[in-house]
Amino acid sequence: GENVEQHPSTLSVQEGDSAVIKCTYSDSASNYFPWYKQELGKGPQLIIDIRSNVGEKKDQRIAVTLNKTAKHFSLHITETQPEDSAVYFCAALDQAGTALIFGKGTTLSVSS
Amino acid sequence: KAGVTQTPRYLIKTRGQQVTLSCSPISGHRSVSWYQQTPGQGLQFLFEYFSETQRNKGNFPGRFSGRQFSNSRSEMNVSTLELGDSALYLCASSRGQGSNTEAFFGQGTRLTVV
User: Which residues pair with A59 in a beta bridge?
Assistant: First the structure.
């Protein structure tokens, strides 16, 4: 079945810097890759997603890139702010299209 | 537009008991999936329902079960609770068909087994 690896597990940046989180997946049939942000005491919030027919997608300060050949996808956050501090999860939708397989998460800390 | 609602938010149960958790999806969403979140294992898929049918099940013992009603609301049940079942249980809803795969999560039910 699908397996998703996520790196790094923790990331500390200064306010205004960029942050990059990387994920790899194992099943070449996967075609949907969402990213979630989870704040303390809350459920995961969908922040951006990408489908396999697209190489890059941007939404204001957030962008996601996908390399299908290498089975890599990455989250890029520019001009980080303290409110970006949270745990970020990448995921891949399984072949059946019914289950998200998650990475282990990255704890992002943005200090001002 | 109301989001995904999970009840209760917190539960404390004793080993050997059973528990039922409830999830109301976003209006118009017919797919409900359940996930278990623990510090050690992260987010793990339990099962997914669409139009009252279980379409997929994760690698959990038979003590974990679920169902979906005609109004798309879903419940999950855990019988004979074990200490290791302590976790945050998350429900996600989506339209569940074709390219409509965006899944939105509720706030979760925090289950503590003592």
Answer: A62
Go through B14-50 and write b for each residue having 16 or more CB atoms within 10 A of its CB, e for each that does not. eeeeebebebbbbeebbbbbbbbbeeeebbbbbbbbb
Residues of A within an 8 Å Cβ radius of B: 32, 34, 36, 41-46, 49, 51, 89, 91, 93-94, 96-105
Query: Which residue in B105, B107, B110 has the most chain A C-beta atoms within 10 A of its own C-beta, making it the best mutation to test that interface?
Result: B105
Residue pLDDT, tens place only, A61-78: 999 999 999 999 999 999
Tens-place pLDDT, residues A76-94 = 999 999 999 999 999 999 9
Which residue among B58, B90, B108 places its CB closest to the CB of A99? B58
Q: How far apart are CA A44 and CA B40, in angstroms?
A: 17
Chain A CB contacts of B4 below 8 Å: 43
Joined tokens for residue A98: 């019914």
